Amino acid sequence: MVLRAGERALLFISALSDELYEDPWRGHMVVEQIDGDLYAIFQHEELWLRDDVPDAIRASARQDPKRPYASAIRLEAMEAYLLDLIEKIDQGGCPTPSAEKQAIDMNEPFE
After folding, report:
1. Which residues neighbour 104 within 8 Å (Cβ) at sequence distance 6 or greater?
2. How far apart are CA 62 and CA 72, in angstroms?
3. CA 12, 99, 89, 23: dihedral to nearest 10 degrees?
4. Best CA proximity match to 65, nearest among 79, 45, 93, 87
5. What burial class does residue 94 get, using C-beta atoms within 10 Å of its C-beta: 0-12 exposed, 13-18 middle, 19+ buried?
6. Pairing relationship of beta strands 28-34 and 19-22 according to DSSP bridges
7. Of 2, 46, 47, 55, whose CB count within 10 A is highest?
8. Strands 19-22 vs 13-16: parallel, antiparallel or unpaired
9. What is the 3-state secondary structure (H, E, C) of 30-93?
10. Is residue 70 within 8 Å of 64, Cβ to Cβ?
């Protein structure tokens, strides 16, 4: 999935040599309107069926109507999850970002 000019997305970045770069593991989730609500598109199917995905994300996920290989997650739920994760990391409640990232691991395909 390529982000095109004019599209909205959640963008995940990394710092490398004092420069910011989009993460290489599909570092964005396109934001689209579906049935009047905003959704973040995640490139894995049937996310709502996975036990290793946080409850809040699983409950807010549905099939992406345009992409059979993707799930659509309500944007408000995804934003709340990410903000909570950032707060936990900032407060030292999460040993490393990768510990929480395992819940939705963008580097490894779901099995």
Report:
1. 42, 53, 54, 57
2. 5
3. -10
4. 45
5. middle
6. unpaired
7. 47
8. antiparallel
9. EEEEECCEEEEEECCCCHHHCCCCCHHHHHCEEECCCCCCCEEEEHHHHHHHHHHHHHHHHCCC
10. yes
CA dist., res. 39 & res. 42, Å (int): 9
- Residue 56 · residue 80 · CB < 8 Å: yes
Length of the chain, in residues? 111
pLDDT by residue for the chain (111 residues), tens digit each? 566 788 788 888 888 888 888 776 666 788 999 999 999 999 899 999 999 999 999 999 999 999 999 999 999 999 999 999 888 888 886 655 444 444 444 444 443
Tokens of 111: 């099995």
Q: What is the pTM of this model?
A: 0.72
**31, 75 contact by CB (below 8 A):** yes
